Amino acid sequence: MSDWSMIDTWIVLTGMVIAMSCALVGNFLVIRRMSLMGDAISHAVLPGLAVAFLLSGDRHPLPMFAGAVAAGLLTAFLTEWIRTNGRMEADAAMGVIFTTLFAIGLLLIVRAADSVDLDPGCVLYGAIELSPLDTVPVGPWEWPRAFAIGLVVLAINVVVIGLFYKELVLSSFDPEAAAALGFKPRRIYYLLMALVAVTAVASFESVGSILVIAMLIVPGVCGTLLARRLPGVLAASAVVAMLSAIGGHVMAIGIPPIFGFVDTSTSGSMAVAAGILFVGVFLVAPENGVLARWAHQRSLRDRIRCEDVLGALYRWHEEHGEKGPVVRWPELAARIGLGPTQARRIRRLLRRNGLIGYVADDAVHLTGEGKRQAAIVIRDHRLWEVYLHHQVQLPADHVHATSEALEHLTSDGMRRRLERDATGASVDPHGKVIP
Amino acid sequence: MPDRRNDMMVEFPWDDLRRLTGLADYNTRVVLLGSLLLGLVSGAVGSFMVLRKRAMISDVVSHAALPGIVAAFMVLTVLGGDGKSWLALLTGALISGLLGMAAVHAITTHARVKQDAALGVVLSVFFGAGVVLLGFTQRMKSGSSAGLESFIYGKTASMLASDAWLLAGSALAATVICLAFFKEFRLVCFDAEFARAQGWPVRRVDALLTGLVVVVTVIGLQAVGLILMIALLITPAVTARFWTDRLGSMVIIASGLGALACVTGAALSALYPRVPAGSVIVLSCSTLFLIGLLFGRRRGLVPEAWRRIRLAARTERHHVLRAVYEQWEQRGVQGFHAHAGTGSVLVSAGDLAAVRRWSEARLQRVLREAAADGDVELDAWPLVRLTSRGMSHARQLVRNHRLWEWYLIQHAEVDPHHVDRDADEIEHVLGAAMVRELEATLPGRLSGAELPSSPHPLTDTEEAGWRKGPA
Amino acid sequence: MTGMPAVSRHEHSPAHPLAIHDMTVAYHRKPVLWDVDFDIPEGNLVGIIGPNGAGKSTLIKAVLDLMPKASGEVMIYGRPYREQSQRVAYVPQRESVDWDFPVSALDVVTMGRYGRIGWCRPVSRLHREAARSALDQVGMADYAERQIRQLSGGQQQRVFLARALAQEADLYFMDEPFAGVDAATEKVIVALLRRLREDGKTVLVVHHDLQTVADYFDWVIMLNMRVVAVGPTGSVFTRDNLHKTYGGRLTLLDEAAEAVARSPQ
């Protein structure tokens, strides 16, 4: 870490442009539920790449791009063709096609290993570490070739997605509506596949197919967990892609020394970094994260318990009058079914909000505010009983349990409609007064 | 492959072929046996996997196996072993493959992530982790990691007899499980909901199937390589479907195709240098797939096209026969060159051609086919003679056509001027049961062979209406 | 304000083929069927009717443990379904399976016997004969060896019925067996239902055609997110109940269901 150099900066920059261009197109694969098509195409561009190499004899980008786009489109087209003509599932069709193309590519590369400087290992996990050594002049600067190509592809992706944004969105979301509006969803589909292929091949040389697959899919999935609307999803996925590139390289040169190694594969580390980010998002995403949902559920559950306590106290007072016998907290908690730790938390919550008062010997009573809120809960409960009995026509002896659940879930809008449906009713089906 | 940098044109390896075909070499024998069993079991397991519509779990499992393999190698090396114990490596692969499937399950149940995305995330991240670990091993001081990469691309020839025995044993065990649970797999793959309602533990059956896929993928890694192992599970299974409509024969055919591809691949890569076994195995599978797609008895494109052509030809012949009959019916006997004594009828080819604007060549071709069937005779060309067999055949066709026309008019409220074409499509496929049903729906209750009249004019002058046709 | 509920309450008897007590069914935690509570006496043909989305299939699936019950319990001949699954036959909707699957009509019917055959045992000739006779009962004996894709919609439905028959169960659940079938098949199904009733079996059928309800069924369950009415067709299948069943959704209940779906587990 201490000897971070310009080379490392270039590696990270290269990783970033490639990761972002992958993430951008990958988003559309994810929302179309075709994530594995990204995997398939990034494997299947291999023969196109190999043929282009064999024909042109060097790493000139144009034939390579042409070959890869051809192979990518061929994958998409053949998959679709054998799916309909062979009457099979889409993923099985994809499996047949991309393995065939990959096998052809592998065979070509291995057979022609003498005349072509393309190592199958390199195809898989690339050589991003070496990319800063191979530079091209760009104006007054010397940029790594991989970075320059990545930048071009990123620009292509941004421009194409910008131009066809609404077509892409509509045809991904609802192909039939898109077709009805004259958007030609099939053309959009093949356009997207071509973009995936271009992106895959631009990234191949430097970072290998594994990072391509990871960056096509993982940032997009993170994006859908982090944001609700597509622009937000795209932005979030771009950030995740950038962070994976930075984190990946830092990990690749930072962690191995701890175990006595020099370094490890940067592209592999970037994929792992993306995975770590995914786990992080999976856990702490603001709305869809596991923790957020857990916390939300917990607070809802607490509120329901509090309302149960208020309701129980209200009913006690109703039955025994204001001057009736005192209620002791442990008995009350046990009747509602609270465990000891839950009981302590609920009591704390209720007292903090000034809903219950506490006198000696664990005796509890409702405060003024407590009475007001308890009356709302009981009112909701009895309104639901009236509704369930008269509108839904459940028998009177069956409505209590359902109302018990619904009383906690009543929004203001629902309450107004309940009141309207129960006009005139002053008692619930059991003859209890509706407060 | 630095040690094999000889020239690209390879002499045909006669000696190697002799060695291979003679199975003289013990190691060759075992490797071929291992490949054969691998092909058999992946065909069988793959069939169920494809039918359960889970083709892509093999993709995930094979990618997810890499970190397990490398981690096992590292642990062994650190512990001072030779790091190449296949059993240990495959155990590592098995564990990380199963972990990958568990991760997919966890992601789809706990977050709003679709199945395909979860599969993609797991396969790429696990594979990335594998590559990272591989990066460690390549820079390790002790132990040589060379050969680990053969798991990615497959190298059957590097298999030792002991590995092959392990492979053979596992393949055999997996095959036995497949056979034992054939009935349960069939039930769950076809109708999981019914199976659950019947009290079958569908999840456990699914888990068993997934477990089999993991095991087969893992034992195939060395021979085929992890990326191409997917093909060995999917391709023979979908190919077999082109040849059969039965699950039992599908499993058998898929096994056979898988075995054929594996043995071919293993043999070719043993014979030639610089031919990766995985590629050849997969390309053999693909070739077999292409053959199936084109010529498969059940769903192949060529047999289907042939069936379509036959049907079209039969339809055309029916149309001509019907035209002959209707010409005769319409013009009455005097319009015909009645052939004294034989009772057969003649109609001029020119009149027939006018009915549907058939070209003369086309009409002649169809008539020759009808003649071959004995429905018409062409000895009086350009007059066509309807034989008595042809007469009853034609009458039947006309009857079906008109029954359907009347049905369309009365029950589907189709305009009488349009029913002719609609009925054209249907009359050829009416079964006896449907004809009976049609007869029952019509007023007047036709009995026996009674022929309804045409609901529309056969020519411009003919009057439409429901009347009894000529007997 | 409407009058008192039409649902009559009575003790749940263990002898009844089906007794549902206080059952609420939720789909993805959203209640779709509220507080179902009724018994079905033995030997009846029971029609389940109601508008789309009323919870007809849901009712069957919840009884068969294919969907989780949010609350309540179901008894089949006095015991939980898990213990009685062999006495219950289920005919799912025709669209629920892939008809391209490589099996013959006979293979499908034989699946009805798998429960009797047990784990890992092959299908014996005895069971194959039973399956063949079930196919014969629905007039499909000639089609036993056909691949199921080659059958017409009505024939496919008959194969499903034959599979249920092959189970030799006492209680049958059929999810829209009449949907999209030809007249011949409809006749076969009706005859079959009546024969099952003569044999003392109980059959619940999700049905759409209101015109034939009175003709086909002795009992009727009228559903719309809750049980509107259940009982003998003559007394329950009334204009008033039909109006309540088909007279629109209870939107407040819908909203409550959404709220429940969002509530903590």
Question: Which secondary structure elements does this structure contain, and how are they paired or packed?
Answer:
The complex is a heterotrimer of chains A (435), B (471) and C (265).
Chain A lengths: L5 H26 L3 H22 L4 H25 L4 H22 L8 H6 L9 E4 L2 E4 H19 L1 H9 L1 H6 L4 H42 L3 H25 L11 H19 L5 H31 L6 E2 H8 L3 H13 L3 E3 L4 E4 L1 H23 L8 H8 L5 H10 L14
Helix pairs in contact in A: 1-2, 1-6, 1-9, 1-10, 2-3, 2-4, 2-9, 3-4, 3-9, 6-9, 7-9, 9-10, 9-11, 10-11, 12-15, 15-16, 15-17
Chain B lengths: L13 H8 L4 H26 L5 H22 L7 H25 L4 H24 L11 H4 L7 H20 L1 H9 L1 H6 L4 H23 L4 H13 L5 H25 L5 H19 L5 H31 L13 E4 H8 L3 H13 L3 E2 L5 E4 L1 H24 L7 H8 L5 H10 L30
Antiparallel strand pairs in B: 1-3, 2-3
Chain C lengths: L17 E10 L2 E11 L4 E5 L6 H8 L5 E8 L4 H4 L3 E4 L13 H6 L3 H4 L7 H13 L15 H14 L4 E5 L7 H16 L3 E5 L3 H7 L2 E5 L3 E6 H4 L2 H8 L4 H12 L3
Parallel strand pairs in C: 3-7, 3-8, 5-6, 6-7
Antiparallel strand pairs in C: 1-2, 1-4, 8-9
Helix pairs in contact in C: 5-6, 6-7
Q: Determine the N-to-C terminus distance of chain B.
A: 86 Å
Termini separation of chain A: 70 Å
What portion of residues of chain A belong to β-strands? under 5%
Query: The biggest beta sheet of chain B, please?
Result: 3 strands, antiparallel
The top level CATH class name of the largest domain in chain A = Mainly Alpha
Shape of chain B: elongated
| β-sheet strand percentage of chain B | under 5%
Q: Roughly how much helix do the residues of chain A carry, as a percent range?
A: over 70%
Provide the CATH architecture of the largest domain in chain B. Answer: Orthogonal Bundle
Return the average pLDDT of chain B rounded to an integer. 80
- List low-pLDDT spans of chain B: 1-9, 334-342, 459-471
Number of strands of chain B: 3
Round the Cα radius of gyration of chain B to an integer and report it.
Answer: 34 Å
Number of domains of chain A: 2
Summarize the model shown:
The complex is a heterotrimer of chains A (435), B (471) and C (265). By secondary structure, chain A is mainly alpha-helical.
What does this protein structure show overall?
The complex is a heterotrimer of chains A (435), B (471) and C (265). Chain A is mostly helical and 435 residues long. Chain A is built from 17 helices and five strands. In chain A, helix 1 (6-31) crosses helix 2 (35-56), helix 7 crosses helix 9 (185-226) and helix 12 crosses helix 15 (368-390). Chain B has 471 residues and is an all-alpha fold. Helices cover 68% and strands 2% of the residues of chain B. In chain B, helix 2 (26-51) runs parallel beside helix 7 (161-180), helix 3 (57-78) crosses helix 4 and helix 4 runs antiparallel to helix 5. Residues 1-9, 334-342 and 459-471 of chain B have low confidence and may be disordered. With 265 residues, chain C is an alpha/beta fold. A six-stranded mixed beta sheet of chain C has the order 5-6-7-3-8-9, with helices on both faces. Chain C has a three-stranded antiparallel beta sheet with strand order 2-1-4. Classes of the chains: A mainly alpha (435), B mainly alpha (471), C alpha/beta (265). Chains in contact: A-B, A-C, B-C. Chains A and B meet through helix 2, helix 4, helix 5, helix 9 and helix 11 of A and helix 5, helix 11 and helix 13 of B.
